[in-house]
Amino acid sequence: MNETGIGNDTFNNLTDTLFDYHFPFNESTTTDTNSTARFFNYATAAYNILLLSIGSIGNILVLIVYGLRFKKSTFNTFIVFLAAMDLICCAIEMPLDAANMIHQEIIHGCKAIVTIATTTATATGLTLVAIAALRYRGICHPLKPNISICQSRIIVSVSFAIAIFCCWPTGVLVTDQIDHIEGGLGVINCAPEDRFVDTIYPVINSGILFIIFLSAFSAIVILYLMVARKLWLRKKYGISSNSNHKTSNQSSDSSTRALFSKSDNSGGLQKGVVSTQIANSQQKVQSGDSRNTKLKNQSMFRMLFVVTVMFMVSYVPHFSLMIYEGAAGKLQLTSVTESVVGIVIRSYLINSACNPIIYGCCSNKFREELKVMFF
Question: Were both Cys, which of 59, 119, 161, 206 would link to 83 (CB 3.0–4.6 Å)?
Fold first, then answer.
């Protein structure tokens, strides 16, 4: 895949390619004596169509189940927001991308495609940081109050606002740039417009986006490592069991005091025993409810952890290729390697299609609700 560089400096080449999106040129262009044949990237278009089909259907079901049929909660708010970002990517970005590869006429969609891709990815990354922070707070600081539904809505709204604020310059800077591959075929590359090529604006924009992604990735890794360390310490030294044992002893002592306080008066022994039994029953019910809530939260966190891992892994091929191009320079591609690179550079799209599958595999309640809806 080709790129438009800014000068000859390595840093400029790297920042230019970090958020460079490559799309085939689908219209014959003529110069004075030469003509550029159209290249139809059917392999990458089929890859896009497959992912947008799976992702669109899956994320619509997620929005219906978690947004309309399940009870409102902090976790459900995060899941609904992630599904909305994925659905925007599947329903708008992917169709434009696929049409740009196989349509007879040029689809001038670089501005929309790149803006949607960067905005949804940034908002998703920031939300996953908030989920990791919530997990860290629940494990490492369990006595602090949990995030409310209202606070979770504020978090996703702020994440989306930050994403729009940081990503809107991308739509202004990029445009469709025609390049060539071996065999005289023409492709189109989303790159900075000619009027911005010799300015510092593309470098600043790409640098800001790269810092946001790197910061989000680092924060997620650090938070989950701290959570893993805390859980390992609890398992090794039995902090959790000691705490439960201490709580059980305190409850037993309080029940014993209640029994004897009720038995001080003559004839009050039976009344004290009944009161103690009622108190113990209420305590068991509360303990059972608390245990069920804890297990439910742990299951939800495991599911969202898998979503986070998939988000990070899906960007590895994308960034690896971008960094390689920034360091090694332009790639001389053929029609075959162009198709391969087109799929690799869009590795991040897998995340939008896989999230509904992850929910279906990790959540029994989600699967049961789908059965109720369809069967």
Answer: 59
Residue-wise pLDDT tens digits, 283-331: 554 555 455 555 556 777 788 888 889 998 998 888 888 888 777 766 7
CA triple 230-158-170, angle to 5 deg:
110
Could you report the average pLDDT of every consecutive run of 10 residues in the chain (375 residues)? 42 42 38 55 89 94 93 91 94 87 74 90 93 87 84 94 92 79 74 82 87 90 90 76 45 47 50 55 53 62 87 88 75 79 88 90 88 87
**Per-residue H/E/C for 129-158:** HHHHHHHHHHHHCCCCCCCCHHHHHHHHHH
Contact indicator for 187, 22 with CB cutoff of 8 Å: yes
The Cα 128–Cα 311 span in angstroms is 9
Residue 24's nearest CA partner among 87, 141, 144, 107 is 107
Contact criterion met (CB below 8 Å) for 189 and 179: yes
Question: At which residue do the structure tokens 């090794």 appear?
Answer: 236
d(CA 266, CA 160): 68
Query: What DSSP element (H or E) covers 115?
Result: helix 110-140
Element (H, E) at 29: strand 29-30
Q: What is the DSSP string of 160-222?
A: HHHHHHHHHHHHHHEEEEEEEETTTEEEEEEEE-HHHHTSSHHHHHHHHHHHHHHHHHHHHHH
- List, in order, residues 6 or more apart from 291 with CB less than 8 Å away: none
